[in-house]
## 1
Amino acid sequence: MRVNSWNGWDPLRHVLVGRADGTMVQAPEPAVQRDFPEDGFPLGTYGPMPAEMTEAANEQLDAFATMLTRRGIRVSRPTPIDFAQTFATPDWEIPTGFGCMPPRDVLITVGTEILEATMCYRSRWFEYLCYRPVLQELFEADPDMRWETAPKPRLTDASFVPGFWDEYRTVPKTGQLARVAAHDLVLTEEEPLFDAADIARFGRDLFVQLSLVTNRKGVDWLRRHFPDHRVHPVTFTNTHPLHIDATWVPLRPGLVLHAGERLADPELVKYFEVNDWQVVEAVQPASWKHYPRLSFCSPWLAVNILNLDPGTVCVEAGEVRLADQLNSLGMEVVPVPFRAVGPFGGGLHCATVDIWREGGLEDYFPRRCGRF
Ligand code: ABU
């Protein structure tokens, strides 16, 4: 066993796949408010996800893990904790946790290092515990593995803009997009905050989305932490930015898939183009009209795909038009039924963490451009 992964496309040898067990609709907290009035969880209510949904999600996660194993990819799984308990630090208390389906939000592998992100939801503060058995095992098996954790945040009220959600809901879309571009959202700059899933790895370049869960200090912390990388803060025209892996998705050297409705900063597109990358706009998601209940993700989970190597990609089985598009770009598509997993926090990319991909650190962007 070893830890090594520098990008999102090198041949996959070992991966972590999440579990749906015990996932909760979270209690309201400053960073996030769930409001599913038609699905039995109006604002202010919380509790376990329905048992039949959890079972269906676990069936798809297990089948996905089995398929990967059959392809010769080693699969590790997290150890869920009791997410229905009250969690507390000296600074706060919250009546529920969340779950451990989307380990990608918490962990990122950069080379021989696995880094635990700060997170900014109180309900996810302790989620790292679910991944510790795997990290411990990797640490013992691979003498070169670097096990790092970003500063655990305090998450006092000072880390959040008071009354953000009540106010943001009333802002028209153009105003919300202006706020996203200025990164004037729910997080203050009290302390570094980031989710690992806001980072897209392209070798020496790491693109980090400023979002509802990642602030400027978080990006600055990452820049200082990875001095051999170029760490770029980026934004897209998405009113609810949450994780870059349903927006700007590396496919192979020279090819990035873009959820084109979420327009990229023109300077970012230029940076890719002057370095001979093709930016391809993804087709509309098949799930655009019929989205699962209790899901807090967007239909753009369609592009939340997992490369097995630079020519092979796992895509949700219902996303037939996307599969056709990827075929036309020379990719082999492995269809994976995964729609039942969406309400547990994401798609195929969210549900996984690369532990080992063959390959090394390369510079895919030799030319500088604008602020990049
Ligand atoms: N965690 C991925 C969610 C991405 C999205 O809803 O766009």
Note: The helical segments are 51-70, 128-141, 164-168, 173-181, 216-225, 266-274, 320-328.
## 2
Amino acid sequence: MPAIVLVGAQWGDEGKGKATDALGAHVDYVVKFNGGNNAGHTVVVGGEKYALHLLPSGILTPGCIPVISNGVVIDLSVLFDEIEGLTARGVDCSTLLVSSNAHLIASYHRTVDKVTERFLGKRRIGTTGRGIGPAYADKINRVGVRVQDLFDENILRQKVEGALEQKNHLLAKVYNRRKIAVEEVVEELLSYTDRLRPLVRDTSLELSRALDRGDMVLFEAGQATMLDVDHGTYPFVTSSSATAAGACTGSGVPPNRVDRVLAVVKAYTTRVGEGPFPTELTDEAGDQLREAGGEFGTTTGRPRRCGWYDAPISRYAARINGVTDFVLTKLDVLTGLERIPVCVAYDIDGVRHDELPMTQSEFHHARPVYEHLDGWQEDISGCRTLDDLPKAAQVYVKALEEMAGKPISAIGVGPGREQTVVVRDLV
Ligand code: IMP
């Protein structure tokens, strides 16, 4: 049985839960390997809507073991709130595994996230304000606090002291904020120790053994390709590796164990936060997509910026991630349009670019070159096979597939689990 990596092809919120659902009962483990509670999955099961921020969506699949691996940054208050909320609704969270090497988000990370965004003014990133960037910065600066530190109070205190030393100077002297007391942080973190202990494992070893046994492991990326810290629209990105390779560093499972890479791509494009977005619609058409698609952030509630499908981005995602299959989501949102524009290339200062340009400055200047495809008027939410789709919708899907250069193996036609056109098996 394979290890599969699931990534977002655009700027996030493509609907990865759909692909997890399409894999369904085959999956033994679902691993979250990057990001933290900046993510937001909305999963609809049996008419019930679940908004997950930190827990992998596999938590909703009975028999599937959810794993938070080393590449994640964990806000423990959010983790236990989410576990309690789901448990109250009858979801079994007892099998969750958490890596001892994962880093923790503490209150000072959230504070630093917010004050730096405010300080950046016009140059702000538009972060979720959850402390993600500052927690990863501490990790790279080697002043991070990890899950395992909770099991040694002296070490924990030393680490928190180390982390706060510079930050308190910065908070007080640059940002005019109050200093954060070491004991306050230590006490808060220690209050989670007993609840966390039974969940903590060497998750790299667990996953390696699971693969040896022939179990199927799904690595589910948070955020998406264009938000990856290396391969996205830097600096308007998140602070982690959201592309397929991140599944390996973020979990301790090597690249030669990964068999397939699925990329989820929306039938149009959205992004939250700042940064370039060539096909963005700032007019009524954008408002219509936002309303029809319910495009408001799961985590922050912010209205998402909306635009047409961007084929060079899908091609880029296919290449960077080594995509084997695409899962197209929200095709039903386009129902009712006369003609559907699709960006096939960019015009940058009068020159046509079929691929993403080399520099950010060029990308900021990119104007979409559109082809217009016929729309369809029929309700497609009940379609379950490719042949059920109206001819124009089939042509739209085929065109997207050809432009991205990889097969579209499943198509979302509504928010429900079962509202999926399965073109070919994903496993
Ligand atoms: P951060 O991840 O909170 O540092 O925010 C950095 C950028 O990534 C901002 O533009 C966020 O809006 C964006 N971002 C973070 N998480 C998500 C997500 O799950 N979906 C879409 N955008 C996200």
Note: The chain has a mean pLDDT of 95.
